[in-house]
Amino acid sequence: MGLFGGYQNAGPGINPNAPKKKPFFRFWELLWRNFGKLITLNLIYTAMHTPLLLSLIVLNETNNKLTDAMTLFLIAVQFLLEGAIMAGCARVLRLIVLDKAFFLMEEFKKGFTQNFGAGLLYWLIDGIVLASLAAGRKAYPMRVEETGNSAYYILFGISIALSLIVLFMNYYIMALQAATTLKPKTVLKNAFMLVGLSLKECLLTTVCAALMLGLMVLLIWINSLFMFLLAFFPAAFIGYLVMFVHYPVIQKYVINPYYEDTGEQNPEADDAAADDEERLFTDRGGSEEPVKQESAKKGKTIS
């Protein structure tokens, strides 16, 4: 704008070739820049869990012969939707981490519809693991009391370890589904392999997510009014954290090697790597020099 300075003077601009910020600072920069989108995404996530909310209301506020049937029906509906909801969120979060421009509702809808079947499969696997862990928590200690054989605790420990592996795989499954055209079987295989290559990142994500959830529980324990925050932020923040930490691992071991092997141009590569011949213009932000203005000469006056 010309209100506070001459339009001929070059501003500082944004240098496209400037070195990237450290991950910690880039994490908060992207978070702040997309804060509104994350809140919107969390609201969508909350709205898509309406069947679960209704099931709790029916269970607690009604007491008739249809209560149990209606509660189970609503939970089943939520179960069918859950995988697709996660896929839609993953598609949006990936674009946020890549710092791409997009229309949130359109991308969420694409992720939801295009990955409905795969999302249901992944969520079914998660459901089986959760059910097995819950059953083992009761069954194994009970068997120890009945038989006096403490070896059952070893089996219980193994089930917990397997559950952690599945949890870590979930950090990659939906991101792989959103970023690639791999079949579900290959997605699961790659997710398992990536867990082995990034245990440090998986542990970091788990600790940070646990701290976030612990903070929310503490706030709600202090005052139940803080429950309204659940509709606006925590789920999207945790999803953003997962995508920010783990998508670079997917790029390093899955996406970049694929384009290097095929020789195709990587659409996720920096613009600076593109061929100069293919560019329509060159961004010189941060490298422009101010325009030198010559002092105006006093002309002759004709009397």
Topology:
Elements: H1 23-33, H2 35-47, H3 50-61, H4 67-97, H5 104-114, H6 116-147, H7 151-179, H8 184-197, H9 199-222, H10 234-262
Main attributes of the structure:
303 residues, mainly alpha, 10 helices, 68% helix, globular, disordered N terminus
Describe the structure.
The structure is a single chain. The protein has one domain (23-262). The chain has 10 helices and no strands. Helix 3 packs antiparallel against helix 4, helix 4 (67-97) crosses helix 5 (104-114) and helix 7 packs across helix 8 (184-197). With 303 residues, the protein is mostly helical.
- Return residue spans where pLDDT drops below 50 for at least 5 consecutive residues: 1-8, 271-283
Strand residues, percent = under 5%
Give the SSE string.
Answer: HHHHHHHHHH
Shape: globular
Q: How is the main sheet built? A: none
Average predicted confidence as pLDDT: 84
Quick overview:
The protein has 303 residues and is mainly α. It has helices at 23-33, 35-47, 50-61, 67-97, 104-114, 116-147, 151-179, 184-197, 199-222, 234-262.
